[in-house]
Amino acid sequence: MSEKLENLVSFVKDKKSWHEFLNKNFPSNRVDEYKYLDLSFLSDFDLRPIEGDQNIDQLDIDENTLKRLVFDEKEFYNFVFINGKFIENLSNLPKTLKINKLQNRSSENEKIALKNLNLAFREKILEFNFTKSIERPIAFIHINTSLDKKVNKKSIYTNYRISLFKDVKISMIDKFVNHEKNDFFNNNIIDIFLDENAYLDHNILQESEDNFQFNHYKVDLETNAIYRGFLLNQKSKISRFNFEINLNKIDSDAQIKGIYLGEKDQILDHYIKTNHNFKKTYSSHYLKGILKDESKGIFYASTIVKKGVKKIIGNQLNKNILLDKNASCFSRPELWIKADDVKCSHGSTTGQLDLDAIFYLQARGFSFTAAKEILLKAFIDEIFEMIVDENIKKIIKKMI
């Protein structure tokens, strides 16, 4: 480990030093990517990994509880993580999977401070190599739990890499869930590499209630590789999904669709950075939010087309419905285009339910509440229809 990262670990162990480090080095609201998210809450956390305090084998997750948290083994391959640690004996894995242990490839010059924090504790990472297509979907199940229900303000770090080899096609779910209610800080790095002609149908389900979820995804695509992402973001106290998409070769194509549902004083934050690094590459990102009470939604998308990179198609769209006067949304789609012969668009709308539409439905016998439910269902059904796998679509609908 470099001296720089060793110093970071020492900062974390000394709470006073860490608080000083936080104030000096972590992004403030003057940094665009964190303009609407205050990270000062981290000063209250013990930022050392919780796994150092607990024996995973002693954690109280019985067989019936585990079955409730994972998916049916007859229909899915389950990769089980508990408090950031991969538990192979609780997982059912495809025979063609190859797992390697690697030196962490993350750059210590990484500009994202939270990723550097993860790197300080994750010198070694796992690489899951998919060498052949798999008909059955795979599910990465991230479970938060604790031996002591009084334990709070702890931290969990996960860092791994998923590689799809040439021509491999896979459907995948990332599920973040609690064994019991907790207020842990989750700081996860997941790198995804799609080789030539690879296809990934990637569904992300944020189901961990009342804790703090910060997930950093980096997706690299080669020639004719296709990434189809769907995100359901709900329940956490604060969650941030940070995507970096790199379209590196011709005809690579990435899409992220999703829904976020906020209530109480939740903050649901989404940042998508797309780099069109090669000609004839395609991206499309479309997120919808429904926010009530005092919840806050954030959408910040930045699509970058490098100089001389032509025949690009890049689209961004964000739509929000605010159900209460204290709910809010901050939406900022951006295009940075340094080339000609491109087709790029961006848009954003935020508002309330259409009162005329509600009146129309009431005039036909529906109650006010039923009319609202019909309009909200129609609002999110458009996104649901973009989910590729029909079985996964049914699972996600049950979670709403």
Description:
With 400 residues, the chain is α/β, with parallel strands linked by helices. It folds into two domains: 352 residues, no CATH class; 46 residues, no CATH class. 18% of the residues lie in helices and 42% in strands. The protein has seven helices and 19 strands. A hairpin with a 2-residue loop joins strand 1 and strand 2. The longest helix has 17 residues.
Brief overview, please?
With 400 residues, this protein is of the alpha/beta class. 18% of the residues lie in helices and 42% in strands. It has seven helices and 19 strands.
Topology:
Layout: H1 3-13, H2 15-25, H3 63-69, E1 77-82, E2 85-86, E3 97-103, H4 113-121, E4 124-130, E5 138-144, E6 155-164, E7 169-178, E8 185-194, E9 199-206, E10 212-221, E11 226-234, E12 238-247, E13 253-262, E14 267-276, E15 282-291, E16 296-305, E17 312-322, E18 328-337, E19 342-351, H5 355-362, H6 368-384, H7 390-399
Parallel strand pairs: 1-5, 4-6, 5-7, 6-8, 7-9, 8-10, 9-11, 10-12, 11-13, 12-14, 13-15, 14-16, 15-17, 16-18, 17-19
Antiparallel strand pairs: 1-2, 3-4
Helix pairs in contact: 1-2, 1-4, 5-6
